[in-house]
């Protein structure tokens, strides 16, 4: 008979042991977390090790397990204490890193208290039927699932893609007798003092990022420099302000440069040899990259009398920028190239855009080409896509090509006139007839080009001449884009469309009201076509107010965007349209190239299944980067023009009213295209009310009217180059008519006239 040993008394002086694993095994992750949750007296690794009897050879794997939990954001260390990390809410905002693998995407909470330890890593799920499909670099509102186990494994499904907030305030440092002040880039913000001790190493004219602090009993805002970005004036790059204000990536990471430098020139492997076909490039005279080439010839098919065969070859960027690479992630992040008067921020490094994917004269280059058979009526009868190796026969500028066709050929274009240029123009003539019959929107507003000197300052502002050569290239690119969309639809391939929706009913009604004030009619139906707007513009030309009407027609249009669902292209009057012709500078075109490669079996570098699932998110992202680029280009032009005009304070200019609001008039100068503002309180000798349906300010007493599109004379009163803002004084009188009917239904404020008889408000 054995005697039972008495039970060992429980040690109550330290942490108790939970249900124990065997002495020779490690605790599970769930057991570790349960101990941390249940026993508040566990302070650190040593206490936790005592709880589970960790000793000897078990110490190393035990520490590794704790490190893994900490790395996953599940436990955190505060000084020397260990505890479970705070759980994520069921719905939260997440940031997906730009370098996240699209096939295994992860994200982190956008807001996180560092005292909670490392941010938890969240796996982002996006199934085939997901309504919102995010991509690397996006900020999303997501629904969070922590799983059913004791150890949370966070997964997220995107509910909405959000705009990212801008970085801290930026501005230009100006030194004065009292120290320094900040001139904000945002024209809505006010100047602030910068204490000399808070300048870092910033000096006069530097662009800086600042924190804003309130000081003193009056809580006066003061700026503290946190980062010196550079000096736009000394660098001759005013665009630097917009680049940083809008957070446009402009320096390529080393990994991206390395991939670009390691890329090899393409060869004939897997390609058709088109090197003997005399494709030519026609571009602006100062173009540094050439991503499209064209050629045309009469069709010798007896079934197509008077027809043409048109070839469009586009640089094969997909051969060099493959999904999942550093080059691809950076191209996606940028979305597109951004073109400023003083620089270009390219989507791809120069090794790709200006070398391997530039269709240089006489150099063999990889391309994706479309061969289109055009009837005598200009309509496309058939087309086919080919992956080729080509050699450009000539590099021409628009002006060179047009001069040759106008009888002024030079040594280069003379030999090209009959074999290449005349057949190209003949094919275009047919295609132009088909375009006119189709009836796209004919809103031809002039675009000004800012020419800079060698110091980066404005030397001249020009309106480039619109040549037939420009229209020829445009029409052939449009035809190639349509062919790409048709092919991918026929193959039932995922596709990024370029869509331009019909005008909304609200915008159409606003246009009707405005046109009614000019006695121009538009049909009452909400179902309108581009040809209806063309009819309105023809009436306006006859009436002599085409500028006014063009501005309002432009405002009535929807914004063109990218989408994985087809809405058609209203402006071009096309049922389907995709961007195929500029993969060097637009990520959308690269996606279309990959889709064609995959759909037609042209290589192993086509669109991946994962990319196809993410097209909705990709479309939203690149539409946003396109809007960002347009805003940056416009802001930079405004700053350059304000700087150019700053020396002409007090000068008179002719302009046209380009916008009417309750607060005043926007005026665009005819010569330079610069935009400025006239406050409503400075208008004439009356009280002026905004009349929306007429897009006008109308005087209560006199009926004097200043309307959208009116030509006016103004005096420049103020120029703010950093903000890109101009303020004018109106010198012209408005048209006289009946006093505003608006005042009958509104209380009129008391009159008060200033020194020059102007009503103060």
UniProtKB/TrEMBL annotation:
Q: Where is the composition biased (Polar residues)?
A: 10-19
- EC main class here is hydrolase
Q: Tell me which EC number(s) this protein carries.
A: 3.1.13.1
Chief place of localization: cytoplasm
Q: What organism, scientifically named, is this protein from? A: Devosia psychrophila
Q: Its Gene Ontology biological processes?
A: mRNA catabolic process
Spell out the SUPFAM superfamilies in the cross-references: Nucleic acid-binding proteins (SSF50249)
Which PROSITE patterns did the record assign? RIBONUCLEASE_II, S1
- GO terms for CC? cytosol
Q: Where in the cell is it found?
A: Cytoplasm
GO function terms (MF aspect): exoribonuclease II activity; RNA binding
Q: What is this protein called?
A: Ribonuclease R
PANTHER family documented for this protein: DIS3-LIKE EXONUCLEASE 2, RIBONUCLEASE
InterPro entries annotated for this entry?
CSD2 (IPR040476), NA-bd_OB-fold (IPR012340), RNase_II/R (IPR001900), RNase_II/R_CS (IPR022966), RNase_II/RNase_R (IPR004476), RNase_R (IPR011805), RNR_Ribonuclease (IPR050180), S1_domain (IPR003029)
Describe the location of the S1 motif domain by residue ranges: 650-731
Entry keywords, A to Z: Cytoplasm, Exonuclease, Hydrolase, Nuclease, RNA-binding
Q: NCBIfam families, from UniProt?
A: 3_prime_RNase, RNase_R
- Job of this protein: 3'-5' exoribonuclease that releases 5'-nucleoside monophosphates and is involved in maturation of structured RNAs.
Where does the record place the region Disordered? 1-27, 735-761
Tell me what reaction this enzyme catalyses: Exonucleolytic cleavage in the 3'- to 5'-direction to yield nucleoside 5'-phosphates
